[in-house]
Design a protein that fits this description.
- The complex is a heterodimer of chains A (107) and B (121).
- Chain A is 0% helix and 50% strand.
- With 107 residues, chain A is mainly beta.
- In chain A, the strands form two sheets. In chain A, strands 2, 4, 5, 6, 9, 10 and 11 form a seven-stranded mixed β-sheet that branches. A four-stranded antiparallel β-sheet of chain A has the order 1-3-8-7, with no helix packed on it.
- In chain A, strand 9 and strand 10 form a beta hairpin.
- In chain A, 34% of the residues are buried.
- Chain B has 121 residues and is mostly beta strands.
- The chains are: A mainly beta (107), B mainly beta (121).
- At the A-B interface, strand 5 and strand 10 of A face strand 5 and strand 9 of B.
Chain lengths: 107, 121
């Protein structure tokens, strides 16, 4: 199975700062990678699909990039509601897999 | 706006069968792959499996054949059964969908509210 490794596990930043989250795949997943945001007690929310496409209603401060094995989710300027957990997910190979998550916390 | 509502037993004993159902409200059922994902307390997300409305299914081999997902298109429902549960199956279970064959995102764009399932003797 494709292992997705997210780094760092925790990212400590201040309001208004830029967040850069990494997701590395154990083999190429081409561009078939998505990002989700999950707040406590809630279901995950789709942010980005197929590397760089923002889902409906997602603010422009969220952007995705990468291809093959290395992907990045960037939040250009952190808002209070952005401090939570983020997961990447690949759909190239069965079983579909998720990364272990990155927590963005207030510094 | 499409919503997924899910339900099922929240407390099971070891060796019992988990059974959850998800219904689609306010949107189309056909044309999507219906997926179940789980999240143990304090941990990450695990894909269980999915089925499309032609009942072609794929499952996570890590579940060793215990999972079965079915659909009832007449009721806009998708169901999960997981047999021979143990404490390791304790998790929040989510139903979700992805658009594998149409023009929508091929990603999990709509989610149910989640059902906490606890396995304990």
């Amino acid at each position: 199975e494709v292992v997705l490794t997210q780094s760092p596990a925790t990212l400590s930043l201040s309001l208004g700062e830029r967040a850069t989250l990494s997701c590395r795949a154990s083999q190429s997943v081409r561009t078939f990678l998505a990002w989700y945001q999950q707040k406590p007690g809630q279901a995950p929310r789709l942010l980005i699909y197929d590397t760089y496409n923002r889902a409906t209603g997602i603010p422009a401060r969220f952007s995705g990039s990468g291809s093959g094995t290395d992907f990045t989710l960037t939040i250009s300027s952190l808002e209070p509601e952005d401090f939570t957990v983020y997961y990447c997910q690949q759909r190239t190979y069965w079983p579909l897999t998720f990364g272990g998550g990155t927590r963005v916390e207030i510094k | 706006q499409v919503q997924l509502q899910q339900w099922g037993a929240g407390l099971l004993k070891p060796s019992e069968t988990l059974s959850l159902t998800c219904v689609v409200n306010g949107g189309s059922f056909s044309g999507y792959s219906w997926t179940w994902i789980r999240q143990p307390p304090g941990k990450g997300l695990e894909w269980i499996g999915e089925v499309n409305d032609s009942e072609d299914a794929n499952y996570n081999a890590a579940l060793r054949g215990r999972a079965s997902i079915s659909v009832d298109t007449s009721k806009s429902q998708a169901s999960l059964m997981l047999s021979s549960v143990t404490a390791a199956d304790t998790a929040v279970y989510y139903c979700t969908r992805r658009d594998r064959y149409g023009s929508g995102p091929d990603a999990f764009d709509v989610w149910g509210q989640g059902t906490m399932v606890t396995v304990s003797s």
